[in-house]
Amino acid sequence: MSEKPEGARRRPYSVEEAAQKAGVDDKTVRKAIAEGQIIAVRLGRRILIPCAPYDRLIEEGEMH
Question: In which domain, by residue range, is 53 found?
């Protein structure tokens, strides 16, 4: 059984939360999603971004 690091997030990010975390504008995140740079899932009108892959993207410095 693997343990999650303390403080790791489980709930996906909204576009607004993802933008805030990366320090960029919402439009930048939406463009990166459209270009396939960010994994995202659309549920109705909501766009949700899985936290683990997005956090790795931020840590690698590829979102700025």
Answer: 13-59
